[in-house]
Amino acid sequence: SRRVCLRRRRRLPCASPISRFPPLVGSTQTLSLEEMPTAAFLPSLLLLLADRSYATPTTIKLGLEWFLNPDHLPLVVALREGYFAEAGLDVQLLEPADHWEAEEEILAGRLDVAVTETLHLAQDAARGKPVIGFSRFLHTDGGVLFLGSSNISRPSDMCGRTISYPGSPGIGGPAIVQTMVEADGGSCDIASYGKHNGGFYHVKALQDKAAAVATLVFYNFEVIEAQQMGLRPGFFSLKEWGVPDFCQLVLFTTPQRLQALRPQLRQLVLAMRRATGLIKREPARAARIYEQHVKGSAAAAGTTNRSALAKVGAALSGAAAMVNPVAAMRRRKERKLEAAIFDATLAALPNDNSLSGAYFQGLMAWLVKTGQVDAQVGPELLPEGYWTNDIAL
Question: Is residue 222 within 8 Å of 159, Cβ to Cβ?
């Protein structure tokens, strides 16, 4: 392993500072005037004192959205490449016990920051939850997925069909589809839609014919998956059919934690921005970094019974693939799918981490119109109450 000097961007010698200077902070040694550093050494001494690598890093416990996946690539690269550490941060990537109640995890001190979508951020704010978003790091194309066998060719064809979506039988799925139908000039009774809760197994729900369409779909995942399976998927994009473009991942915290960690959160965003630059310039290197992190995370989690069983299962699967050509072919298809999803995700990483107040006003207006937010609360809720660009800009 090569030796690295932790001096951020400064090219200082790798010699230990203790060998060059007398003890400073916390030392019980008394120095005479003759033993004090000469004026020639003072500039270097000041650099060492200012170097954040000597300070105790600030721990930031960051809750992922559901589970580790390529959407979290800027976080993984910033962690593995040491960008967080260079910024004086000890960032811990965690899978929250309850994604829907991440702000409770923050209030309880189990998290400092969490990942969510702009849709959920606005909904939580309208429900009076203490949330504030401060940086966008993924913007994918979201919408409605259907298969070629569904006899759907335009949004108005979805009228009265069964919808698969997380949160069913809530109003969210029909609100999205109904907006698209109306944008296409159709007229439909919103009560006519069937509802199916297939979780995030969108493609499976369509394959099993449990539903004709699936929504809350990310193009870089489910559409790519259906394409790789040869299912002839069709896709209606939110932004093209009257629905606010809310398939964007953002970081959020509580107002209290934002004030307490403001400088550190700025450094967090800058480190992620630096990671995004590396990902776009060197995608093959980023893919290797992500793969190493996934393997490392799986190995670290191997002490639990659940992880141990998964590890044994993976080993058996690998052994079976060596003697079973069908298993080997399946694994090759899985690798091809993983590579396709990774490539599609690269295009969804924005350089701009900010979001406008007008965007959130439009999103909130749609939530009120479709009955997902209280009409007495939504119009009075200003975007600056739950989103700030002060950290990102």
Answer: no
Q: Is the CB of residue 184 less than 8 Å from the CB of residue 156?
A: yes
Q: Which residues pair with 94 in a beta bridge?
A: 63
Backbone angles phi, psi at 217, to 5 degrees: -95, 140
Token pair belonging to 41: 């050494």
Q: Among all chains, which residue has been given the structure tokens 């203790």?
A: 18
* pLDDT, tens digit, 9 for 90 and up, residues 110-137: 999 999 999 999 999 999 999 999 999 9
Rounded Cα–Cα distance for residues 50 and 63 (Å): 31
- Edge-to-edge order in the sheet of strand 213-218: 194-196, 162-164, 213-218, 142-147, 233-237
Residue type, 103: E
Decide: 89 and 78 in contact? Cβ < 8 Å. no
Distance of CA 69 to the CA centre of its chain: 8
Separation of alpha carbons 163 and 212, rounded Å = 6
Query: Which DSSP string do the residues of 172-219 spell out, in sequence order?
Result: HHHHHHHHHHHHTT----GGG-EEE--TT-HHHHHHTTS-SEEEEEEI
Phi, psi of 272 (to 5 degrees): -65, -35
Cα angle, residue 339 at apex, residues 333 and 345 outer, rounded to 5°: 135
Neighbours of 95 (CB within 10 A): 13
- Give the pLDDT confidence of 222-267 residue by residue, as tens digits: 999 999 999 999 999 999 999 999 999 999 999 999 999 999 999 9
CB 289 within 8 A of CB 276: no
- Convert the pLDDT of each residue in 191-204 to its tens digit: 999 999 999 899 99
The edge-to-edge listing of strands for the beta sheet with 113-117 is 89-94, 58-63, 113-117, 248-253, 132-139
What are the φ and ψ backbone dihedral angles of 279, each rounded to 5 degrees? -60, -45
Task: Quote the CA–CA distance of 158 and 178 in Å, as a whole number.
Answer: 8
